[in-house]
Amino acid sequence: MNDIIIAGIGGQGNILLSRVICQLFTNRGFDVKSAENIGMSQRGGSVVSYIRVGDNVGPIVPDGEADILIGLEITEAARNINKINKDSLIILNDRFVKPKNSELEKQQILKYFEKNFRKLTIINACNIAFKLNMPKAENITMLTLICKKGILHFSKEEILTVLSQVLSPPMYEMNKILVEKVYEKY
Amino acid sequence: MKKVLMGNEAVAYSLFINGVNVAVGYPGTPSTEVIETLKNFKDDDFYVEWSTNEKVALEIAAGASLAGARAVATMKQVGLNVAADPLLSLTIVGVEGGLIVFVADDPGPHSSQTEQDTRNFARFCNLPVFDPSSPKEAFELIKPAFEISEKYKLPVLFRMTTRVCHSNQSVEFEFKREKKKVKGFVKKPDWVILPALSYIKHVELKQKLQNMKKELSVYNKIEGRGKIGIITGGVSYFYVKEAIKGYDDLFSIFKITIPHPLDEEFILEFVKDKEMLIFIEELDPVLEEEVKLILFENGRIISTYGKRNGYVPFAGELDVDKVKDILNRIFSNKLHIKENTLTDILQIPKRQAQLCAGCPHRNSFLVVKYATKGQDVVFTGDIGCYTLGFAKPISTTDTCLCMGASITMAQGLKIADASKKIIAFIGDSTFFHSGITGLVNSYYNMHNITVCILDNLTTGMTGFQPHPGTGKKIYGEEGKKVNIENIVKGIGIEKILVIDPYSDFTENVDKVREFLNTEELGVIVFRRECANLKSRKSYFKINQNCLKCKVCINVTGCPAIDEDENGSIFIDSVLCKSCGLCKNFCPNNAIEKVMENE
Ligand code: SF4
Ligand code: SF4
Known about the structure:
The complex is a heterodimer. Chain A is α/β, with parallel strands linked by helices. Chain A contains 7 helices and 6 strands; from the N terminus they run E-H-E-E-E-H-E-H-E-H-H-H-H. In chain A, helix 2 links the parallel strand 4 (66-71) and strand 5. In chain A, helix 6 packs antiparallel against helix 7 (169-185). Chain A is globular. Chain A starts with a strand and ends with a helix. By secondary structure, chain B is of the alpha/beta class. The two termini of chain B are 47 Å apart. Chain B is globular. Chain B has a 6-stranded parallel beta sheet. A 5-stranded mixed beta sheet of chain B has the order 9-11-10-12-13, covered by helices on one side. In chain B, helix 2 links the parallel strand 2 and strand 3. Classes of the chains: A alpha/beta, B alpha/beta. Chains A and B meet through helix 1, strand 2, helix 2, strand 5 and helix 3 of A and strand 1, strand 8, helix 10 and helix 13 of B. Strand 2 (32-38) of chain A pairs antiparallel with strand 8 of chain B. The complex binds iron/sulfur cluster (2 copies). One iron/sulfur cluster binds at residues 542, 546-552, 569, 585-586, 588, 590-591 of chain B. Chain B: Its cofactor is [4Fe-4S] cluster. Chain B: It comes from Caldicellulosiruptor diazotrophicus. Chain B: Residues 567-596 form the 4Fe-4S ferredoxin-type domain. Chain B: This is Indolepyruvate oxidoreductase subunit IorA. Chain B: Catalyzes the ferredoxin-dependent oxidative decarboxylation of arylpyruvates.
């Protein structure tokens, strides 16, 4: 496994999540590269991050080569399927924000994923973060659950170490509590 | 320490480690994070600021450099146009301490008005330009960039593209600053640009470029021994490497890190045994043209593939798949480079760029739109988040050219088409950047337009940088606050109105309508802090009174309001910023406020 795509909309913390995952791999001794596409608006636009473990590659994952697709939002996950293949691992956050000019409904997209991909996991990170009173932390909630379920093999301690490296001290404190609670309850 | 750094951060770390004394810039995607990162570093011989525009920034850097300090000015490619005046003169005047002009180009473009290529700027102003392929390489090249600048007493361009600026890579380094002693300003006739001197220095400049070629050539590199040569640079180098994986015997790569000035000998050596050359680069055919000239001058004839014969696109950015497509076209698909991917792909329409939920600009635009209903009006727009005022359903931006042009284009429109009402929109940071001179002009030459300054108390588009109107300096510490109304009054303009876009919509419409009644130059300041800066205490929801008429959606276009599968209208409680705008348009009182934690 070496190529990961994270797709979501602006405001979901996609970039931070990608940064955290990069640092997780780096701390394990890997070389990583990543890049992102951000739309024009601060919030609400399409955002996609590419993470590549390995040094001698460009920052963008070529078509069909991603091993993992992490969808912070369902429509945006679907927008990036050209980057994955039938065997890719797909992890979706149960969050749907329909683009204004789109006809596709949530169920249609989910059916599409179910039909075409064998390795699909749906996680309700948005809801859990909201319940834990940190609606802005669906990204870290997602990561914690992905690791807890063993989809990415990083321990709670590794996550906390990276968060302390990447976040400001007050942000770290808040996220630490979140990670602990997610490990405990979900 | 091994840390994941974004390209711009890598540049910032390296600048600091290599003793930069003065760092100045104006925010612009994708260049912003260089200064944003540098501001986290402190030292008694280090100064960092956000300047009011790129010309100001470069001139400050130039001043510091003349006093012997190492300096950097950062900007995006369009910002370089603003700083072009001092830059071209600096090539004549020269520098003392190392001066790096960091410019971020935006092939794509992802968030720019143009796709211009700064490597061409380097050719135009006779300066060396560094073009790193990755954050790691950018980190390593800052040191030689300073050294070349100091040795040849010339500014050096450090050009990166979005995919290098905004990509991340693990970089290993020791965070230790090498201090540079600043010797102070020494008076010299050289520092005064005069026509007679310019001629002499121009001759010197050409000589300097000749002299530095060899030295710079060590940063270029050759890989492989295949008979087909691929000449590339910047991030395209990695795309090429990946695309030809498995065909290594066939190809060899010439990676050009310093596109200008190019060392002839090095090129001739590389092409000696080549049967064919392919140029893979983004934006302008800079490498292609430079190399072809060298080949021609040396009587070398070889078949080439690139932009000039249509094999490589002139516009947009490249990626691995595009490079594979290019190679497949050149070799008529004989190489079978591209594998098949998924066939059944869902088509999803683009998410239209739009103003954020609760953005005060939405309220301001709609106030002006309602106040001018039924009248013949042209709305000129400017560069910033509020350029999105053109998007439906707001549709209150008819033109957008470059920083500050809303005010000046409005005057041109007024001269040519006096019967129309012309209303210009400009943001606060843009007003300081280059709006003020335009406003002075409209007063002096008596052009009767209305200027709406959309003051959200920050530079929203690039990530909330402070500016003179905020009075906060780069670390958030107190500076002197420049009051926009005082500037307007100081010019001599008396007709001024200040409005809070979140306050009562109908009242605001009345005020603006009355303001627009008289045909004279006037300024409306709409002031309310950016919706992303403040946490909300309440949000809005739709209650059972809803008629599903969708007026709220159709008028405001607020991304927080939507219709679900069953046609029911709902407000996304995560997105809503509680601006209250939608409530004004609901015919049946179906939108109500909810206090947080209720
Ligand atoms: S109050 Fe209405 S217009 Fe304002 S952010 Fe919330 S949903 Fe959008
Ligand atoms: S305007 Fe009012 S009644 Fe009409 S759809 Fe919106 S909330 Fe419902």
